[in-house]
Design a protein that fits this description.
This protein has a seven-stranded parallel β-sheet with strand order 3-2-1-6-4-7-5, with helices on one face. It is built from two helices and seven strands. It has a single domain, classed as Alpha/beta knot, CATH 3.40.1280. With 128 residues, the chain is an alpha/beta fold.
């Protein structure tokens, strides 16, 4: 199971947490996230654990960035322990790690929760 790190996620934080939980991730690492956006159905999932965190060891970290040169189909997802994804207006190009993007027709930034849902679906295809 991968560790998910959410970096400076704002208004999409609630939806991103619910999404990760629906894929089986109850422990989420938050780095400079705006917790004021935690409302609504987030806590209907009673065992969600939000961990104030720092950046992980980046050697085995997959960084989702819309302008990366590699796509998620170019790599073996099993080679990574962590997923780092930022809020929509956050650029992670200065962070270390292997940067990948979700292949799309138009190279445009996806919402945090939509990009995370695609990568978690790819990971879970091997499980189910």
């Amino acid at each position: 199971m991968k560790n998910i790190y959410l970096y400076k996620v704002g208004r999409n934080l609630n939806r991103t947490i619910r999404l990760a939980y629906s894929f089986g991730y109850a422990n989420l690492n938050l780095i400079d996230c705006k917790k004021s956006f935690l409302k609504g159905n987030t806590f209907s999932a009673k065992d969600v654990k939000l961990i104030d965190s720092i950046l992980p060891n980046m050697d085995r970290t997959l960084v989702l960035e819309y302008d990366a040169s590699k796509t998620i189909t170019d790599i073996n997802l099993d080679d990574f322990d962590n997923i780092l994804i930022g809020g929509e207006s956050v650029n992670l190009t200065s962070k270390l790690g292997v940067k990948v993007k979700i292949p799309t027709v138009n190279n445009f930034c996806l919402t945090t929760e939509s990009a995370l849902s695609i990568i978690l679906h790819e990971i879970n295809k091997k499980i189910f």
